[in-house]
Amino acid sequence: MTNDNESLLKEFINDFNEYAWENNLDIQLELNLSTIRNDYDSTFDYLFSEQSNKYDIYLYDVQHSRKYTNHFINLADYLKKEHIEKYENDVAPQICKFNEIWISLPLYLTFTVLYSNIELLNEYDLDIPKT
């Protein structure tokens, strides 16, 4: 996780905690950050294998969605249909929905793009690079 992403998460948490306090929700969100450096996979594997209820919400990288899908509930059973529908025409179903089950919702999305200059590729008779 980059410092920018960590800062963004901390901002989300601060905003949520302020909202919860102002609305007397008696909820406080805390960040317990697991990264590759502190064995993200092992932490999640352990918590899920033990069926731990230590955390109510997990924030994770979507690259792990398929691995953990069996450990998550169907959010469509708990959230209003109108809320889920906000994500239907976006990239969210591709990364958050498996076997027609909404296992997660995106907090934020980041993209890495490979730009290809078609004119130069054509000029030098090269194919578009693949990643």
Keywords:
single chain, about 130 residues, mainly alpha, two-stranded antiparallel sheet, 2 strands, about 5% strand, extended
Q: For the report, how would you describe the main beta sheet?
A: 2 strands, antiparallel
Give the end-to-end Cα distance, rounded to a whole number of Å: 21 Å
Q: Can you give the mean pLDDT?
A: 86
Specify the number of helices.
6
Question: Could you tell me the radius of gyration in angstroms?
Answer: 19 Å
Give structural notes.
By secondary structure, this protein is mainly alpha-helical. The chain has a domain at 58-123. Helix content is 38%, strand content 3%. The chain has helices at residues 3-22, 40-49, 65-68, 81-85, 92-96, 118-123, and strands at 97-98, 101-102. A two-stranded antiparallel sheet has the order 1-2. A hairpin with a 2-residue loop joins strand 1 (97-98) and strand 2. The chain is extended, with a radius of gyration of 19 Å. The two termini are 21 Å apart. The model has no long low-confidence stretch (mean pLDDT 86).
